[in-house]
Structures are given as structure tokens and as C-alpha cells.
Amino acid sequence: MKNLFLLIRPQQWIKNLVIFLPVFFGRAILDSHAMLNSFITMLAFCLISSSIYCLNDIVDRNDDRKHPDKQCRPIASGRVSIHQAIALIVGLFSLGLLALVPLGTETLPTAGILLAYWFMNVAYCLKLKQYAIIDVCIIAFGFILRILAGGTAADITLSKWIVLMTFLLMLFLSFAKRRDDVLRMNETGLPPRKNTIRYNITFINQAITITASVTLVCYIMYTVSPEVIAHLNTEHLYLTSIFVLLGLLRYIQIAVVDKKSGDPTKIIIRDRFTQLIVLAFGLSYLFIIYIL
What we know:
mainly alpha; globular
């Protein structure tokens, strides 16, 4: 049971919190119906994404056995059989779809987005992750589907700037993660992924710089957008851009100076500075739209 629990990677479920972004940016946190639907959608995505993790570990089992960290994964180490993993995939996939039933009229459109996410990631696991740039774009687009599902379930129309910013931010994090792969390849001479040979430090550093810069610009454009100002009834959101800038700079510091950008989830869970910036951003944003 412990190995099956490790296989579904519950620590990665934190990524699905982005499903709550529509209610956060849409000033709907106090709307119990929107919050409940967002929670249900997050639960469904947790189950579906775990089924993808199982598939990924089946496909990568031979490469994982050569990796100093991934060789301990349940399938690569032989503690979980392929048949057990396939049964788990079917179970998680079925439960993920069933979890959406309580959404009522929003069940079918949200399920459609969920299925698009699942099939896209199946293609990613089986083939597309072998292609540089395409791999990080698919990861970033997966987060777009998450927030679209959250917006659909909560019946909230997303700002185009938030959609674009989410894609760019996740692209930034994905490139930072690939930087860790390149560093490992340079040290050992062995690429952790098949597409790592199509990246190098110069390219990764430039990609990180570009995506971070455009992410910041997108967020600023969001805060000064006329429709956002009218909807939230405030012209002060631009002040929260300070925390977005600090967050990006901190992550670049972790990637370039500390060289520890291999797992964004661990950074968010363990790095106190990053947590403080996220907390300050969230509180300042809520203060501006609800109190100021």
C-alpha cells in the first residue's frame, strides 16, 4: 500500500491549487458554490494527474533505473508491478471522472477539459516529451487546462491576461527545471531525459530570462486592464506587481545561484522566502480587492 501511495505522488497535488485561481482573481472567494465546485474539480484533477504519474513511471522505468534519484521509484525498483500500476491507472481515471458528477450542469464541460488534459498527457508520456521545447509547452498548457476547468466549474470568465500569465509562468518554471537536467548532464555526461541534449545552459538561461520578463509584463497589464479595474472596482492592484517581481527573482536565484530548481514543488514546500512572498502577494491582493 505504501508503494502504491508513493506511485501516485500525492506531494504533486499542490500543483492543482491553480484551479482556485479563477475564484481568487475573480473575487469569488466568498462564494461558497464557486469554492465548492473548485474543490471538486481539484479533487478530480488530483486523481487524473496521479493516473498520469503512474503511466509516466511505467514508460520511464528503464531510464529511471539509471537515474541516481529516480531509481528508487516503486516501478523502477520493482516494488510495484506493471499490472498493478495499470489497474491503478484505470481506477484513478474512473474515480476522477466520477468525482465531477456533483458539479451538475457544469459536469460535462469540465469533464471535457479534464479528458483533454488526460489525453494530452498520455501523448506527452508516450512520445511528445522526447521533443525539446514541445515538452515544456505541454506542461505549461496543462496548467492552462487546470485554470480553464476551475473557471468553468465555478462559472467564472477568466481574464486573457491571467490565462497568458499562467502559461508563461509555468513555462518559466519548466525551463528552470530543465536547467537542473542540463547541469546533471554536464556533470555526469549522461542526459537525464532523451531531449536534454537539445538544451544547454546558454539557451536555458535566455529562456528563463525571457519568460520571467514577459510573465511580469503580463501581470502588470492585467492589473491596469480597464475591464479588470471595472470588475474589481480598484486601481491599486498594480502594487502587487512588487511581489510578483520578488517571486521571479527569488526563483531565478534558486535556479542560477543555488542550482536547485529541479523540483518546483519541493521549492514551494520548503523555501521559506518563497512562501513569504506568496503569502504577502495573496494577502495584499485580497486586502486591495475586499478592503481598500
